[in-house]
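Researcher: Please predict.
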Amino acid sequence: MSEPGAPATADKAPRLQDRVLGGVRWGRLLEPLGFIKVLEWLFAIFAFGACGSFSGETGATVRCDGETKEMSAISVQFGYPFRLYQIPFEMPACGEESEPRTLHLIGDFSAPAEFFVTLGVFSFLYAMAALVLYLRFHSLYGENKKLPFADFCVTVCFAFFWLVAAAAWGKGLTDVKAATRPASLIAAMAVCQGQEVVCNAGATPAMGLANISVLFGFINFLLWAGNCWFVLKETAWQAQAAPRDSAAEQGAIDKQ
């Protein structure tokens, strides 16, 4: 009894797999609507990944007496979400009566950074859901007139939000660079104001990954803004405009 039932059980898995993947129209990935969604999905990952995984290091050196070789090195690490005021560092003591003090970096730039990363995550999720809808449920997308209209409205919103997020994070990154450069670190330490104290710049932050994240933000804006036209062509507005244009062309031909 078990032997005849085994092949029937084994055939159910391929049949279910064929049902799921058989209706997927992979050819739609070659169309602008599907191809741009793939690019939106990828560049959303690049954008929030580059910003969310960033970490940098800044520093300075303090020599209490210019004639001595004893030097105190200060190293400060920072990164996403760029709440710099929560990052401490030790200011060395120069003098017999003074004691080391704990200072903090200046500034809070978490708002534009977190908005940028959050938008990237939501763009990633929506682009993935839209791809599933385009590829697997393409008939539902074509028959239901509300879905293309909703897709168009969401695409316009994402394009606007990417422009705002990229510009805001670009400005925030400029402020982060100003607050974390060694010169700002030296200016915040009162010990460096002494006449015999020599303070020099230490490690300079490498901001390449953060700069790339801003670039990815503007690329996402261009992708979502360009995709508005291709999504608009799927809506009822464009479908109604096409017959009117063809009727006008036919009327012009009849008059000739």
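Model: Residues 116 and 165 are 5 Å apart (CA to CA).
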